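Narrative of accomplishments. A recurring question from our advisory board has been how the design workflow behaves on a single, concrete structure rather than in aggregate. To address it, we present the structure tokens for one chain from the evaluation set, followed by the sequence designed for it. No filtering or post-editing was applied between the two.
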């Protein structure tokens, strides 16, 4: 009898889907796969189920931008029942791979793809099992036996040779549930489906904030069109004092979807893995942020947009970011949104990319995987300089969301206030919160809101909040950290009160969010030894080493890297 490798996928959302797809595509019949899913349905995860979306929420990716699955999205839509399409005001005849669609419907697509992959597994003779309504409560590594024990619902335990953690998003509750009308996130959106007659404070202006805006606006008024066909918004009679106030550190709104030359954020001019490894070896074991910025951002632009390259060729990263941010700061955010909407429309009609924006997305995606090799100095530069620009530009909010934001602003129902890094939110026992910030004139403001929604997006969760406590207690995993290239910078950063530690070799390390993983997404212990039994794809817990979670692209890429080690 052949030795059977027992593999567990913990979580049946999009990450679990792509991991299962890799295992099925391997054709390896010497494996058994068990998928544990907390809910009663596979595929949709949090973003594409009722936990993360209502009927009004739409994807920010189109069919041509998602990694290939069993059935192309546009083909699948044509087979969806008319009743379902009518519910979402869709016509299959007018749908194509370049269009976005409702998130809940996209969740149905992912579920259907999981079903088809199971069919392929059966046909290929790959044994698998799905355990629904199963919450993972602990993971225990037993190296002496060469197994990993998975605990479900605090009761049952199962033994596996390999475990891939795909448990998805997590928004911890800090004040929600204790403070009335205080929400640590807008998810599930059903909880903020509220009719209100007062101003709502929203922290952030990301895609998460757009989700909250789409829900709140529909429960307090209606969208319509005027005589010229322009979208307008009217408050309901019971919500005449309702408005939404966005509070952002940068005072900016996300950019609008445009035509991408390469819809999967790859580019044949990027550095190869071998070139990156050679660079790290020649650079004292560190990946240089300036090197990546030059090679994976500026140089591809040189051949594609030489005029733009001439403007930026001598700029260092900080100078480039300052220039781009300055251009945005000079214009009212809603005027800028209007201008970018027009620019994006032209880009789509002409099928011509806004190339520097596309390359910023490519850079973010390309940098995600080797980011763990940055020095602590460069990671801090990335977080304070480049990441804020990336988070605005590559949000890619759909055209319909842009139109709604503009309509709400014209109606006086949506405004944006820049609040700076030192702003604070103070929960109030009676409900809501006080927002404290300095206005552009430097005058301190303290504004009370009866309702507050935190919309900064998925937080990078600290090591201490890792949910599977046996892995912490047994030292199977370790806190993520990055070495300072210059010890003096480490001392300086430590004196600034940041989380810096010094080891026995007098080297200084910056502690970052989440756990340590290696290049193959294997967890790493405190001694630097990787674990070939446990792989980590749950993005909230690897944010220190993987700063950009590019959704389905991340799931596709990470699963491809894991399968190289899991089934060599």
């Amino acid at each position: 009898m052949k030795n059977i490798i027992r593999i567990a996928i913990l979580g049946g959302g999009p990450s679990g889907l792509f991991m299962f797809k890799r295992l099925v595509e391997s054709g390896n019949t010497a494996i058994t796969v068990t998928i544990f899913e907390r809910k009663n349905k596979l595929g949709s995860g949090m973003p594409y189920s009722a936990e993360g979306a209502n009927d009004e929420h739409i994807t920010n990716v189109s069919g041509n931008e998602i990694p290939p699955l069993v059935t192309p999205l546009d083909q699948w839509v044509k087979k969806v029942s008319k009743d379902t399409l009518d519910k979402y005001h869709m016509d299959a005849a007018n749908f194509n791979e370049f269009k976005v669609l409702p998130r809940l419907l996209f969740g149905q697509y992912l579920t259907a793809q999981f079903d088809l992959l199971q069919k392929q597994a059966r046909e290929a003779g790959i044994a698998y099992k799905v355990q629904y309504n199963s919450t993972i409560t602990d993971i225990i590594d037993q190296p002496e036996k060469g197994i990993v024990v998975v605990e479900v619902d605090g009761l049952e335990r199962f033994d596996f040779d390999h475990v891939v953690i795909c448990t998805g998003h997590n928004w911890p509750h800090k004040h929600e549930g204790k403070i009335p009308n205080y929400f640590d996130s807008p998810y599930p959106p059903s909880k903020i489906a509220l009719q209100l007659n007062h101003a709502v404070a929203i922290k952030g202006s990301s895609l998460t904030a757009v989700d909250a805006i789409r829900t709140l606006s529909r429960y307090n008024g209606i969208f319509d069109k005027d005589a010229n066909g322009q979208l307008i918004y009217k408050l309901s009679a019971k919500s005449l004092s309702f408005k939404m106030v966005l509070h952002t550190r940068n005072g900016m709104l996300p950019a609008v979807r445009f035509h991408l030359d390469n819809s999967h954020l790859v580019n044949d001019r990027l550095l190869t893995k071998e070139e990156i490894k050679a660079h790290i070896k020649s650079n004292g074991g560190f990946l240089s942020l300036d090197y990546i910025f030059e090679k994976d951002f500026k140089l591809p632009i040189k051949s594609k947009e030489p005029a733009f390259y001439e403007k930026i060729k001598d700029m260092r990263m900080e100078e480039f970011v300052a220039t781009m941010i300055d251009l945005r700061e000079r214009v009212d955010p809603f005027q800028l949104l209007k201008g970018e909407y027009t620019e994006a429309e032209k880009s789509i009609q002409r099928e011509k990319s806004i190339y520097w924006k596309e390359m910023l997305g490519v850079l973010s995606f390309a940098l995600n995987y080797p980011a763990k090799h940055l020095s602590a100095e460069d990671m801090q530069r990335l977080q304070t300089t480049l990441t804020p620009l990336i988070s605005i530009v590559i949000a890619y909010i759909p055209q319909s969301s842009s139109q709604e934001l503009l309509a709400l602003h014209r109606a006086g129902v949506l405004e944006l206030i820049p609040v700076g890094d030192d702003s604070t939110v103070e929960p109030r026992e009676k409900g809501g919160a006080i927002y404290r910030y300095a206005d552009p004139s430097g005058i301190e403001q303290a504004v009370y809101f009866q309702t507050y929604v935190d919309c900064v997006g998925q937080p990078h969760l600290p090591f201490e909040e890792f949910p599977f406590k046996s892995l912490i207690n047994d030292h199977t995993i370790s806190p993520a950290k990055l070495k300072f290239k210059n010890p003096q910078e480490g001392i300086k950063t430590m004196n600034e009160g940041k989380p810096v530690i010094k080891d026995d070799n007098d080297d200084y390390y910056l502690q970052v969010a989440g756990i340590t993983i290696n290049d193959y997404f294997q967890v790493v212990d405190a001694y630097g030894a990787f674990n070939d039994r446990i792989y980590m794809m749950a993005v909230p817990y690897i944010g220190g080493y993987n700063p950009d979670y590019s959704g389905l692209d991340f799931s596709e890429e990470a699963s491809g890297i894991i399968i190289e080690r899991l089934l060599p």
